[in-house]
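Section 4.2 – Deliverable D4.2 (structural model, holo form)

The reporting period included a commitment to supply a predicted holo structure for the target in complex with fe (iii) ion. Inputs used:
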Amino acid sequence: MTMRPYPKSGDLFESERLRTEQLAPGAILLRGFATHEAPALVDAIEVISNSTPFRTMTTPGGRKMSVEMTNCGDVGWLSDNRGYRYVPEDPVTNKAWPAMPIPFEDLAKRAAAISGFENFLPDSCLTNRYLPGSKLSLHQDRDERNFDAPIVSVSLGSPAVFLFGGQCRADRPRRILLENGDVVVWGGPARLTFHGIAPLADEHHPLTGACRLNLTFRKAL
Ligand code: MD3
Ligand code: FE
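Output (structure tokens):
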């Protein structure tokens, strides 16, 4: 039997090394975890948005959000004058949301597992599209039926400053740069932290041009 020595860390390419960072208990940043998959993910988002287009939504308070959104999976998140909720049909097309592509689900499961959340089964994937100036105000994700499952987020394209707050809205947020291929897993004590995205800068990325895409995988039901 031939045995290959386990590679010393110096033998690993930078792109093969796991760059994990615990931002807080339950919040694990996997830098570059999806970089290799990024072009395929962007292509799949293009396909999804051809059947269920990106649209801006209105908050229950009547403000138009600057981020454009679409969904895939069993249910999709939406916001309108009646509130925030998950629905099985897209109100724009009056059809079911497209199925979650297997490579999406697979990536979300691998990221969750490596972060200590085995058996994550997302049933919803919200895709956010940011253009220069688009932002997402500080908020909590609390429209899911239970908070035991983590949320997995994948950043694609142009970089953004992520605002990582605390358990109270008034906690001053830390600013963390999220770049193409970065994946963050939010579970346990981090599941209800306040978070947002600062206005996107006007930067060019070879994959997406000026725009940033973000996937958030959730177990909504
Ligand atoms: C921390 N999206 O769609 S991803 C959202 O980049 C959302 O589009 C942002 O916040 C974006 O709701 C941020 C990072 C993220 C997502 C969900 C979280 C951080 C989170 C849930 C709980 C705590
Ligand atoms: Fe959120």
